[in-house]
Design a protein that fits this description.
The protein has 217 residues and is mainly α. Among the domains are: 56 residues, no CATH class; 80 residues, no CATH class. The chain is 49% helix and 5% strand. It contains nine helices and two strands, in the order H-H-H-H-E-H-H-H-E-H-H. A two-stranded antiparallel ribbon has the order 1-2. The longest helix is centred in the N-terminal third of the chain and has 20 residues. It is elongated.
C-alpha cells in the first residue's frame, strides 16, 4: 500500500526540483518561491477571506477559534506562540553573530544590531514618539516647557503608572508606552512631561516641585 503522505511529499519535491509550481498546476514557480504567481494569489485571497470572516466573528484571524484580545487582532495563545517563535529566531541570529532585527547582517561589536538596523530603529522610535506626543499637545513638557525630545516622556496624569503596567491589557501590548497609546487610540489620562518633572511628581506626592513653588504661601 502506497503511503499517500510520502507520495505527496515526493511529488512536491520533484516539482520543485523541476522549477514548477508545488501545487501541480504545471506553471513555472516564481523565482525563489515554491508556487507560481497565480496559485500564490489564490492562496492569498483565500487566507484573507478566512481571516476577514474570523475577525467579523470576533475570533483570532490566526487560529480562527479563540476570541481576540482588545485592539490586538490576535488571541493570547497565538500572541504567546508568535513571541516564542520570534524569540527563537532572535536567539539563533545572535548565536550566529547576526543582527536581531534583519537577521542577515553582522552585529556591531558589543551590540545586538547591525549599523543599518540600529540607525533605522532609532529613527522609527523617534518618529513614533513625536507622533504620539503630538496627540497630547506636542513634544513639550506640560509643566516646565522643556522641548528637547530626549528629555521628554509620557506621564500618567493620575499617578497610576504602576497599576497600568501590571494590568493584563498593558502586559499584552506590543512594545513600549508609545506603541500602546497609538494602538488604543490615544486615550485620556496621559500628558507629556520631562523626566525631571515626571520623577518630581512621583517623589513629591503627585505634584511637581515646579508647581509647588508657584503656589502662594
Amino acid at each position: 500500500m502506497v503511503d499517500r503522505n510520502a507520495y505527496q511529499k515526493q511529488r512536491y519535491l520533484d516539482l520543485r526540483a523541476a522549477g514548477l509550481c508545488g501545487k501541480g498546476c504545471g506553471n513555472e514557480a516564481e523565482p525563489g518561491k515554491s508556487l507560481c504567481r497565480e496559485c500564490r494569489n489564490k492562496n492569498l485571497a483565500r487566507n484573507n477571506s478566512r481571516k476577514a470572516r474570523a475577525v467579523a466573528a470576533g475570533l483570532c484571524p490566526a487560529c480562527g477559534t479563540r476570541p481576540m484580545l482588545p485592539r490586538l487582532k490576535t488571541c493570547s495563545h497565538c500572541l504567546r506562540a508568535a513571541r516564542q517563535r520570534q524569540a527563537g529566531k532572535v536567539r539563533q541570529a545572535l548565536a550566529a553573530g547576526l543582527c536581531r532585527f534583519c537577521q542577515r547582517r553582522p552585529i556591531l561589536p558589543g551590540m545586538a544590531h547591525c549599523a543599518l538596523c540600529l540607525s533605522g530603529e532609532k529613527n522609527r522610535r523617534r518618529r513614533r514618539k513625536i507622533f504620539v506626543m503630538d496627540q497630547y499637545g506636542g513634544p513639550v513638557c506640560t509643566c516646565c516647557g522643556e522641548t528637547i525630545l530626549e528629555f521628554l516622556t509620557m506621564d500618567h496624569v493620575n499617578g497610576d503608572g504602576a497599576t497600568h503596567r501590571r494590568s493584563p491589557v498593558s502586559r499584552n501590548a506590543l512594545g513600549p508606552i508609545y506603541a500602546w497609546l497609538k494602538s488604543h487610540g490615544f486615550p485620556p489620562g496621559f500628558q507629556v512631561l520631562c523626566f525631571n518633572c515626571n520623577v518630581g511628581r512621583h517623589i513629591n506626592g503627585g505634584v511637581c516641585p515646579h508647581q509647588a513653588q508657584k503656589k502662594p504661601i
